[in-house]
Amino acid sequence: MASTSDLKKNLKILVDGDPYTVVEAQFVKPGKGTAFTKCRIKNLITGSVLERTWRSNESIELANTENRKMEFLYSEGEHFVFMDRETYEQFHVEAEVLGDDSRWLIDNLVTDVLFFNEKPVGVELPTFVEMQIVHCEPGVRGDTATGASKPATLITGATVQVPLFVNEGEWLKIDTRTGEYVERVKK
Amino acid sequence: MLGAPRPGRLVSRQPPLAEDAGGVVTLEHIHDDIQPGDWGWLHTTGEGTCLTAAVQRTGTPFPGEEWRRLHRTDAAGRTRLAALRFRHRILRRVREFFDTRGYLEVETPLRVPSPGVETHLSALTADDWFLSPSPEFQMKRLLAGGTGSIYQVCRAFRRDETGARHNPEFTMLEWYAVGADTSQLRAEVEALIVYVQEHEVVPSPLPPPPYARLPMADAFARLAGVTDMMAPAAVLLAQAGLPVPDGGMSWEEAFFTVFVERIEPRLCEDGPVFLTEWPAPMASLARLIPENPQVADRFEFFAPAPGGGDLEIANGFGELLDAELQRSRSLEDLAWRRTHGAPEYPLDEKFLQALAEGMPPVSGIALGLDRLVMLWWGADHIRSVLTFAGDEL
Predict the structure, then answer these.
(1) Residue B310 belongs to what domain range?
(2) Chain A touched by B256 (CB under 8 Å)
């Protein structure tokens, strides 16, 4: 348990059973009256942000959360298997925790995995990943202009739109936040 | 006047060059002790620039942390030092405003035997006394002594109040207008704002007055859908569409919950507001309005905040003159403190005695000067307009 004076940015708290991080906290004490702390909090599992106000005599429940550096090993049915880089302990992460993000999981990718009450509940991918193209239509030499694009299939089965000059077998840098092609990389 | 000395680091003796934040400058004179890599203060005079002997040897940061703290630019490209210069100009105009209106400037002690007994007050102790959370008692004793209208710019101290708009030690502008009623006092707040804005370049001025006067009951009705602000806690919360927490809430907590959740966020949508006629239980040191004793002759001034929302700027009272009523209110507050486990502070008997001897009819107001400067400067954190915030000490 904590008190409202502990409500600071990045504090991990438990609200209605879900873990949240404090995005912004503001102390207010209108009219010589009761003090409040108004917060914007972000759900660590769904990412949704909401506003919540606490009176100064209310207690705050802290969330038992932890970020661990994990390496992606392989997928197995509805699960993705990760390994803790320090303890070599393996964890099964459910597919729904990753959602669409699973398409950027390449073997041996190192990510932050959020644990809530000892269970993995979130995977924070690196902003950029590098992946090889396994299939796309042949390139058009000399067409380096922006605008026109074509689909390319990557090694995980994900599809991205790439410029016409990009070829099968090449490596790409992808922005995992938007799922967009950034540039070609030499391997 | 010549420019203030600035940090400079010697680059070479031959030719005599030093670097400062703006680039490389040619020197007219270097103190003998200074070697390339050392830094000290660059003084520019009519005869050129010299690097003086007040030198820090190689190895301390260049420029120093203190210099950086005051010269670092914010998102708008302005420094803390610029804010402090602005604050100085505002303070001068504020004093000028009251001086030209015949107010006497006073300075009352900061270390006092009683901080008051308000329910939600948490005072800082100083020896067996307290650091004053408000100069009110001593200023009222002066009024009872016949000073006439007075003002004061002083520090006030409140424990556990820290945030973007709070610092445990802050600057209060407090004034008492003898013979004035609260409507005249509100007009004087507007006049002060006009005076400063007419005489100083203010980066984010308030719109020109007059500002809205909104009775608290109307604010509850219009912004929260509450038909009677004196209704029980559960009714206030239900009408405002707010949940009743497990364990319930007192009326006062419910009142301020509705205020914080429903009223404050929209209070300043159309500009600054005087929120008037507070419920009688929140009268504090204000008198009740004779024609309607359900409400107190108390108002607060709110203005739109730079970062959105609003900022509580000032709290004014038509002052209570009845010593016996003041004593019984204080005893009620003390009883509340006792049942809620808050420290029990002593009553200020000399203040109560002064009321009993007779204080002239007067209206008084306390204005958070840091907040007003913050507002005018367009800062979203109080630290921007302080020399040192609590966590910088």
Answers:
(1) 80-211+271-392
(2) yes
